Amino acid sequence: MTRPKLFGVPFKMINQQDNAFLIAPFEEEEVVKVVWYCDDNKSPTLDGFNFKFIKKFCHLVKGNVETYS
Questions:
Q1: Is 0.70 topped by the overall pTM?
Q2: SS3 sequence, the chain?
């Protein structure tokens, strides 16, 4: 694979260990901590479901949450 260059200046590369860390799937515990840290009135997407709803119904929506990219 060729690396992109910006006017001949090569981009720095990360090592394999850092790469593995960055592409590893999130653990459920990490996601729960982040969700509970968020303001209840904020919404992570445009679907209208805010964090208050997600926290209250986490037992129902867990495993059925779509990822947005």
A1: no
A2: CCCCEECCEECCCCCHHHHHHHHCCCCHHHHHHHHHHCCCCCCCCCCCCCHHHHHHCHHHHCCCCCCCC
